[in-house]
Amino acid sequence: MSRTVSEIPSLRRLALVGNPNCGKTTLFNALTGLRQKVGNYPGVTVEKKEGRFTVGDVEVVVIDLPGVYSLSARSLDERITRDVVLGRQAGTDPPEAILAIADASNLERNLYLVTQVMELGRPVWLALNMMDLAAAKGLTFDLERLSQALGIPVIPIVASKGVGLEALRRKLAEPLPPVPTRRWRLPQVIESEVAALAERLRAGSWSDSAAAEGEAIRLLLGDVAEDDALPPAELQSAVNAARGRLEALGIEWWTAEAEGRYSWIHAVCRSAVVQPELFQQTASDRIDAVVTHRLWGPLLFAGLMLLVFQSIFTWAQAPMDAISWLMGRLALATRGVLSPGEFTDLIVDGVLAGVGAVVTFLPQILILTFFIALLEDTGYMARAAFIMDRLMRRVGLSGKSFIPLLSSFACAIPGITATRTIENAKDRLVTILIAPLMSCSARLPVYALMIGAFFPADRRLWGVFSLAGVMLFAMYGLGIAAAVAVAWLFKKTLIRGASPPLILELPPYRLPSPRTLLLTMLSAAWQFLYRAGTVILAIAVVLWFLATYPRDVALSRDYAAERAAVAEAVQRGQTPEAEASAYLQALENLEKAERREKSYIGRAGKLIEPLIAPLGFNWKIGVGIISAFAAREVFVGTLAIIYGVGEDEDAAGSRALSAALQADRYPDGRSVFSPLVAVSIMVFFVLAMQCMSTLAVTRRETNSWGWPAVMFVYMTLLAYTGSLIVYQTGRWLGLGG
Amino acid sequence: MKRWLTPFRPSVATADVSPAADQPVTLADVAAGDCVRVTRLLAFPGAERLRERGLCETAEVRVVASGDPLVCSVLGVRMILNRQTAQGIFVERLP
To answer: In Å, what is the CA distance from A96 to each residue of A56, A100, A121, A124, A145?
Structure first.
């Protein structure tokens, strides 16, 4: 290399900008690998992702920005992108240059954003992605000519296969290219208004000199987001006056920007790209003829979901048993290493039992995440929105609202964040309010425990589907049905408004990238284990204390004396040893049960028991539900601690817990749990708002405490009523319990 | 709402488009497989978004699947629009 260190800056900040679905995230991951830092922009929940890579002596920092179609700042994502690039976003240093990425197979549409980015007053590179897809479409590029026509360097890549990344990395570390100039032209009258406005912006130092023209175009011809600040009054009146002058001349200025940019882009592409035919019937079209079919579409969608839920049970069993076995060995080993005492009890019966019971469900969460990532990565999500549009419109929303809802199956937090693509504020609000009704992965351990214990996986329905899979499907279905009903109610009462337009892109089907799937699963696993290691661990410790103390309670019988009596009887040869040990075991279990009932948590549980008895819940379930208000999966850990599963020497985790639940009896000998009670518990979990993080995100996204309050109240009422109806109807029908 | 553009836009009511009997007028009336040119977008919510994505005045659009929602091809990209939106897009047939 001929360069010396002094010639180039050692640190370079780049912003990565591109349309949705153009492979931006794939490129970001491929460039930066695991050297990423994820955070949030202050005040909003738009994810702030920074990664870095090194070429020679140059350290390049890449800021990943939300995928947007334009910089007109009509949505929050667009505003963040614009503000970060212009250095207006608080807490983020402005980037020196911009790496724009475009889908080569849809170049014209992607170049719209690129032309806007070129007007921001920063050097720009264009990474032309998906060159393989473009070649398959029959497109050939004259890259030299394209680069010259656009006035920026163009680098061809295939981000998903790593093609061209080395060249791109090297290019990004070279000295910065010049700031591009605007080459497309508006009609002359509008041009002079833009020039005048740009001059005003420069004079009042509202804007960088190089970016003033772009800013003038945005102000004059663009729109503002509903929650964006209006420009200062002085500028507003200048803009309004200019628009008035244009209208007096009969000029429809609102069509000028799109027409101007697209006609220039069209000319550039005609000169540099050889395209056999603009419209081609694609394989995606043929697949869509079936997938979005009036009848087959919804059937296929339902069948797909059913398959997903079934595989959650069938595939997860072996790894779950393995984790379960491992936790059991760990408990045993801990008892062997540590001397008996309170601390050991805390570790084994509190931490290992509580956290262990939750961690067992990791395989199921991974399988669910895998399928949701698969639906997203193949492009099926947009088809789901298409299929659901009819239904969603009936309740006053558009199919677009269904995409955040489907993501909420993984977790409501990214789901609520994803509502930012919904332009209409009212529809967005309704979507946020119903998103937590979608069964998130934190509910999965609860469903899995209940279904695993009371609905055997080997029972088949109609020969094909396992009863367990169908039950799980039913729980997810109930969440969707409740969401639709609640949305309808909100649209009729609190949040009235007409059905929104549906404008959505159908991306071509793509083979999923194993790397993306793997990264998504890894990140889900990490989040789950992180929660298990923090929130759930803390709650497990607290619960263990509450379930263990006070120690000096008045017991109904003198267990120690009885034990001594048995031991004495064995010594005297009056009782056979086997019989005595069984009796001693039973005695110990009785004592533990009584102590737990008289512990702090037992007393608290007894206090609320009358309130939840109509739902078929005993005090232990009640305690579980209350602890689950911190995080839903805690329910499983709580039951494990209350049922003392960690003390079983040979097994811990789900199997032992299932057995303990099946064996639990009321004092009068009735089973505490039955399939009916299990369904009642699941219905409660489907409908209840038990997630602090979701409430916090709702507060941030709606900018008020009122909506999270509404969310909490309506969901809690719904959950109680739902469980009450299920349990009481079930009893009335004689379904036991 | 702070949409400060709105007062200047022609509303749906003032649009001087009278449907002629002999040809389809809006995108909602175009049969699958037909190719048309956009003549005018009414000021419905979302019109700006359509323009940015290439469905602007003078653009060529091909309807891939008709119905509600319909699928159309704009600059080679498939987009879905519901009927209500498509009815705000006035088009002329291409020869």
So the answer is: 19, 13, 10, 10, 26
Comparing CA positions, the residue from A422, A484, A495 lying closest to residue A701 is: A422
- Inter-residue contact A636 to A344 (CB < 8 Å): no
> Is the peptide bond prior to A514 cis by the omega test (within 30 degrees of 0)?
no
Architecture of domain B23-93: Roll (2.30)
Q: Is the pLDDT of residue A451 over 50?
A: yes
A404 contacts A527 by C-beta, under 8 angstroms: no
Task: Provide the residue count of chain B.
Answer: 95
For the stretch A629-682, pLDDT in tens is: 777 888 888 888 888 775 554 444 557 788 888 888 887 878 888 899 999 999
Assign A340 to helix, strand or coil.
Answer: coil
Alpha helices in A572-691 (DSSP H): 577-597, 600-612, 619-627, 634-642, 654-663, 675-687
Prior bond to A508 cis, omega within 30? no
Residues 6+ apart with CB under 8 A from A407: A372, A376, A414, A415, A418
Interface contact A74-B69, CB threshold 8 A: no
Q: What integer pLDDT is reported at residue A39 of this predicted model?
A: 55
Shortest Cα–Cα distance, A133 to chain B (Å):
13
All structural domains of chain A, each given as residue ranges with its CATH number in brackets, are 5-173 (3.40.50.300), 188-254 (no CATH), 296-320+368-492 (no CATH), 551-588 (no CATH)
Q: Does A402 touch chain B (CB under 8 A)?
A: no
B71 contacts A262? CB cut-off 8 A: no
How, if at all, do strands A58-64 and A47-55 pair?
antiparallel
Euclidean distance between CA atoms B24 and B93, whole angstroms: 8
Three-class secondary structure of residue A27 per DSSP: helix
Taking the CA atoms of A161, A163, A166 and A170 in sequence, report the sign of the dihedral they define.
negative
With a cut of 70, say whether residue B53 has pLDDT above it: yes
How far is residue A673's CA from residue A421's CA, in Å, rounded to a whole number? 44
